[in-house]
Amino acid sequence: MVRVLVCCFFFFFFIFFFQAEDGIRDLVRSRGLGDVYKRQAFNHLVAAAVFLFFTGFFDLMDGAIARSTNNVTIFGGFLDSVLDRYTDLFLMLGVFVYFLFSKDTFYMVVTFFATIGIAIIPYVKARAEASSVKCNTGVLERPERLVLLFIGLLFNVLPYIVLILAVLTHVTVIQRMLFVRKALISNQ
Q: Distance of CA 156 to CAs 30, 46, 62, 86, Å?
């Protein structure tokens, strides 16, 4: 659980603080945030991709270690799920701040829209399970979202990835809602 918060901190740190420092330095040297800023920001995106990779790795490992040592608890699963939500939202906050410092209002809005979808996907699943419907359907589960973000950060295609997330997260929500509706109607 600590690994999630630490990795979120480092992701946010690389996206936000280094860009802020670079942006201030570049603003003093030039008349604005131009190509120099974008090149430096890309280096920080790669560093953020590395930390995102470690976040995913440790996320997989803690569950596997708990299962292999027979230390699985209901609260542990609950806590892992809650910390995953924090991780997801901190990651998207870092992406939002990246676009904020890039002064790209369009992608700030798209990131916010994607964040809403990312937050609602597990909510729909939890509500479905509260209605006794197992709901693991949809095109964009959490591992796929993390892989997309990793690709966006590593290969400097973050704007395209955010657009994909903004669309496919809401497609997943709709898929889950339709799945639950069908399951509940068939159980009546």
A: 23, 8, 29, 24
Cα distances (Å, whole numbers) of residue 11 to 93, 96, 166, 178: 10, 12, 20, 35
Q: pTM for this structure?
A: 0.78
Nearest partner of 136 among 144, 146, 128, 145, judged by Cα: 128
- CATH at 87: 1.20.120.1760
Tens of pLDDT along 129-167?
999 999 989 999 998 999 999 999 989 899 999 999 999
Question: What is the extent of the structural domain holding 129?
Answer: 2-187
Q: Are 172 and 180 in contact (CB under 8 A)?
A: no
> 57 CB contacts (<8 Å, ≥6 apart)?
none
Name the DSSP letter for residue 14.
I
Q: What angle do CA 46, 157, 100 make, to 5 degrees?
A: 80
- What are the Cα distances from residue 158, in Å, to 46, 99, 108? 11, 10, 12
pLDDT in tens, 3-52: 555 555 656 555 555 554 444 444 444 444 444 444 445 567 787 788 88
DSSP classification of residue 33: S
CA separation for the pair 14, 11 (Å, rounded): 5
Total number of domains constituting the chain:
1
